[in-house]
C-alpha cells in the first residue's frame, strides 16, 4: 500500500521522519534533515518549502523542493550542495526507488507546470524516466562536474607521487621558503571564524552571501567531530583557509580561499597539501570530494570527474509550458 503526504515546513517533516534523517541514521551530509533545514532557513527563507513523502511498507522516499509558486518547483539546493536527489529510507532496491520516484512525480504532475532539479548526479537517468512515465516532458542537460579522488588504500606519499610534476615541484619550491605555518583545527571559535571571514574578504571571490549558513555548518560539524578548518598563516596573519568535513571515510571540501596579496607564495596550495595529507594519513578517508565546479586546479589534485546534470520537467497539459520546453530541449541539443 502506498501512502503519499506533503509538508510545508521542515519542522513538520522532521516530526514525520521521527529521527530517520538524523546524523546517526543518514551517512550523507546532503541527505540529512539538518542540512535541508539550515539551507532553507539561511539561504531560502522567503521561498515556500514543499516536502513530499511516499511510504510503501518499510521504505520511504522524500523530495525536498522549493516552491516559489504553486506551479513551479526547484530542488532545495544551491552552490553549497554537492548533489541533490530524492532521499530514500529503508534501503529500497533500484526498481523500488524508481517506482517511488514515479509516485512522487505523479503527485507533482497534478498541479505543477515546471520543475527544475540541480545538481543531479547518479540518479539523473532514473529521475528522467520516472518523471516521463508520470506524464512530464523532461530534458536533461550536463551542467558542470564534480571532481573526486578514490584513495584506494594509498597513503599520502603514494598518492602524492602520482600528482603532476608541476604541482609537486610547486609545493616543494614554495615550502622551501618556510614562510607559512599550517594550522588544522577541529573546532570553530569566534576568533577562528573571524580569521576565516577576513581571508575570504581578501580573496579573489565575490562577497560570500552565505556566511551564516557556513558558520552554522562549521559549528554543527565541529560538535560532531567532523570539522577540519585549515589555515595557512604568515606569523599570526591568516592568508589562506579551507573548510572541510570528514565523516564515514569521506572528506568533503566545502570552501577554500586565499589572500590575493600572497598569490606568488602559493599559501593555498601549501594548505591543500597539508589538508590532503591530514585527511588521507590521519583521518583515513577513502574518498575526497571537491564539490561542484570545473576549476582547472581541481584536476591536478583529483583523478575522476563526475558529470552533474540539470533536469527540467514541463507539464504538457499547460500550453504556457510548450515554448519554454521547446527552448530548453533545443538548448540541450546544441550544448
TrEMBL record:
Pfam families xref list: Acetyltransf_6
Start and end residues of each BioF2-like acetyltransferase domain: 166-298
Protein name in the entry: GNAT family N-acetyltransferase
Coiled coil regions, renumbered to chain: none
Listed InterPro entries: Acyl_CoA_acyltransferase, BioF2-like_GNAT_dom
Amino acid at each position: 500500500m502506498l501512502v503519499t503526504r506533503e509538508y510545508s515546513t521542515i519542522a513538520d517533516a522532521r516530526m514525520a521522519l521521527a529521527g530517520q534523517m538524523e546524523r546517526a541514521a543518514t551517512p550523507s551530509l546532503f541527505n540529512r534533515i539538518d542540512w535541508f533545514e539550515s539551507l532553507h532557513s539561511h539561504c531560502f527563507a522567503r521561498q515556500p518549502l514543499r516536502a513530499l513523502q511516499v511510504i510503501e511498507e518499510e521504505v520511504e522516499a522524500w523530495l525536498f523542493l522549493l516552491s516559489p509558486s504553486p506551479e513551479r518547483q526547484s530542488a532545495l539546493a544551491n552552490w553549497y550542495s554537492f548533489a541533490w536527489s530524492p532521499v530514500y529510507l529503508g534501503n529500497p532496491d533500484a526498481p523500488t526507488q524508481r517506482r517511488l520516484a514515479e509516485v512522487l512525480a505523479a503527485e507533482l504532475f497534478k498541479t505543477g507546470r515546471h520543475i527544475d532539479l540541480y545538481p543531479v548526479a547518479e540518479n539523473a537517468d532514473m529521475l528522467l524516466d520516472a518523471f516521463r512515465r508520470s506524464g512530464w516532458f523532461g530534458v536533461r542537460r550536463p551542467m558542470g562536474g564534480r571532481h573526486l579522488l578514490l584513495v584506494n588504500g594509498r597513503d599520502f606519499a603514494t598518492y602524492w607521487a602520482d600528482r603532476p610534476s608541476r604541482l609537486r615541484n610547486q609545493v616543494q619550491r614554495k615550502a622551501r621558503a618556510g614562510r607559512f605555518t599550517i594550522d588544522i583545527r577541529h573546532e570553530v571559535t569566534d576568533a577562528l571564524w573571524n580569521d576565516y571571514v577576513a581571508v575570504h574578504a581578501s580573496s579573489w571571490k565575490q562577497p560570500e552571501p552565505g556566511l551564516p549558513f557556513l558558520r552554522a555548518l562549521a559549528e554543527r560539524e565541529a560538535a560532531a567531530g567532523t570539522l577540519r578548518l585549515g589555515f595557512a598563516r604568515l606569523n599570526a596573519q591568516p592568508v589562506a583557509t579551507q573548510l572541510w568535513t570528514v565523516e564515514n571515510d569521506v572528506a568533503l571540501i566545502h570552501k577554500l580561499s586565499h589572500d590575493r596579496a600572497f598569490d606568488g607564495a602559493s599559501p593555498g596550495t601549501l594548505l591543500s597539501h597539508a589538508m590532503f595529507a591530514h585527511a588521507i594519513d590521519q583521518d583515513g578517508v577513502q574518498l575526497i570530494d571537491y564539490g561542484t565546479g570545473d576549476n582547472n586546479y581541481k584536476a591536478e589534485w583529483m583523478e575522476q570527474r563526475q558529470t552533474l546534470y540539470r533536469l527540467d520537467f514541463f507539464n504538457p497539459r499547460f500550453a504556457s509550458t510548450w515554448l519554454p520546453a521547446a527552448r530548453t530541449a533545443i538548448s540541450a541539443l546544441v550544448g
